[in-house]
Structure formats: C-alpha cells, structure tokens
Amino acid sequence: MIVDVSLRPGIADPEGATIERALPALGFTGVRAVRAGKTFRLVIDAPDEATALERARALAERLLSNPVIEDATVRAGES
Amino acid sequence: MIVDVSLRPGIADPEGATIERALPALGFTGVRAVRAGKTFRLVIDAPDEATALERARALAERLLSNPVIEDATVRAGES
C-alpha cells in the first residue's frame, strides 16, 4: 500500500517555497508551484485487497497525517 | 510533475521503523515493511511533456534526492 500525505491547498509550504526560490540560482528556470509531501509504503496482511485498503485508509487518516492541514490518499502498490 | 524520493533498499529507515513499532500499541496489527519517503509536486513550463519530464528528472537527481542513499522517480501528474 502507498499512502500519500500532502498539505491541503492554501496551507503554507515553507519547504516547497524554499526549493522553488533556490531553483533559478541552480540553473532550473520555469519551475513553479513546488509542494513537498510525504509518502509511506507499507505491507498490510489482510484477507483481501479491499480490507487492506480500508485499514490503510484508517491508518493514514488517524496516524500518518494531520487532517487539519493535510490530505491523505491511499492506493494499492508494491511496497 | 510528481517526484518520488525513497530510500534505497537496505538503507536504514528510522522513521519507518518507529512507525512500524508504534502501530500495534495503537490498534493496527499486521502492518510491516513501513518505509517513509518524500514526494514533490511541481509545475514545469516546457514546450512538451517529454522536455518537462527530462527537466524534472535532472532536478530530481541533482537537487531533490541524495543519490547515495535515495532513488528518485519522476512521473507526469497534476500538481
């Protein structure tokens, strides 16, 4: 399972902003809207994929993200 | 463009290990092989998608990841 955690739109992203500001000096122009996020890859032992997805979703929302400022999305994928 | 940066196989991942260790006490069992990574979403102004992908790849390898311990993969995707 792959859990993507990204800042909600409108929430300030200092890491992304810093990268974006640094890029032109490093030779990369035309790059904008840089947003940093986190990804967690994990294996869930479950009887079927639907159950695994459901558990991953609960885990993502309750533990891996802060729902006040972040969105978590879950997808099946190799770990 | 979406840039995924993950630790290479075999490189210790203290964040993932800490999450994995904490999960049973929090009610999640059967979760293993937790690995933490980073994701960067960005918009690249380029004449076509192939050029944008190429620039994103250069940026990912040179600036967004540490090639000694991390793998970076780039894919097209909404920012």
Mean pLDDT of chain A: 95
The end-to-end span of chain A amounts to 6 Å
Shape of chain A: elongated
Rg over alpha carbons of chain A? 16 Å
Overall CATH architecture of chain A: 2-Layer Sandwich
Number of helices of chain A: 2
How are helices and strands ordered from N to C of chain A?
EHEHE
Structural class by helix and strand composition of chain A: alpha+beta
Q: What assembly state would you assign to the polypeptide chains in this entry?
A: homodimer
What share of the residues of chain A does DSSP label as strand, in percent? 25-35%
DSSP strand count of chain A: 3
Structural write-up:
The structure is a homodimer of 79-residue chains. By secondary structure, chain A is α+β, with helices and mostly antiparallel strands. Chain A has one domain (2-75): Mth169, Chain: A (2-Layer Sandwich), CATH 3.30.1280.10. Chain A contains two helices and three strands; from the N terminus they run βαβαβ. Chain A has helices spanning 14-22, 49-64; strands at 2-7, 31-44, 70-75. The longest helix of chain A has 16 residues, at 49-64. The first copy, chain A, is elongated, with a radius of gyration of 16 Å. Chain A binds chain B through residues 4, 6, 16, 19-20, 22-23, 26, 28, 30-46, 55, 58-59, 62-64, 79, and chain B through 4, 6, 16, 19-20, 22-23, 26, 28, 30-46, 55, 58-59, 62-64, 79.
